[in-house]
Amino acid sequence: MTRSSATYQSITTFPTWQMPIFPERYPDRGPKLSDEEKAFMEEYVTAPVTSMVGLRAKNLCDKLARFDKPFLDTVRLNAEFGLSIATGRRHIFTYMAQSGLAFWAWSKETWIEVIQAAPVAKHATGTRFWMINLAYLFCDFLYVGASTTYGLMADTIFGKTVVDTEVNKLHAPLVALGYSKDSRDKKRFRWLCGLAMLANRSPFVESLSAHTIITANDLLADVPGFGRIYGRRMLMRLQTSLCHLGILDEPVILESTNETTYLPALCYARKRASS
Fold first, then answer.
1. pTM score, two decimals?
2. Most CB atoms closer than 10 Å: which of 62, 232, 243, 265?
3. d(CA 32, CA 30)
């Protein structure tokens, strides 16, 4: 953390963030499946879709409530959850039955496999999106991959109104400094801000730090193609905004770009180059 960032955050009070869901609320979090639980999951996922409805489905889900409740609570964070709950449930039950472990006990590698194997929905939400949120909320694992909707994910975790307010705080200095007002750029900036907020586990601008910038930069290294290019460009803008707001007193990362660099960052870069 830079000097002013540390000082700023030590003397400035800002709201702390409490996640809408956290594992401690679910007392029955043993990591291993019993033989009976595994059998119930296998029954659910192997039955024809048309037959796993009504009372039969409810009875099985009730017996698997310690897994099904946190899954449903996570799905319900997004208003569009009613699209394919059974598909998402089948997906997660399949991998739990195969691994013999509850999803909150999965490794990072297992989560990557589960997320990448999830069916891609026509809508932004759906099985893949829910798996990403479960990994984040229950295993503190922020998945990085192609077409990951960090803006929507931040809206889901922190609330759209809060995210919009905080992103506008960060975007206003950029407009004042003459950066592009192009709607695509603002959408990309919001995507990057969502990633940074999720990495920081708080949406509040004042809580962003040098460590957040470094973490986001490291995460972007795993984003393929143009996503990484645009993401790093927007990360530089986020850093510029934090400098302008006085949250950082100097840039954390230095990178040559084709766009105008905020003056303190430019001065610091020259100072380092001449030393």
1. 0.86
2. 243
3. 6
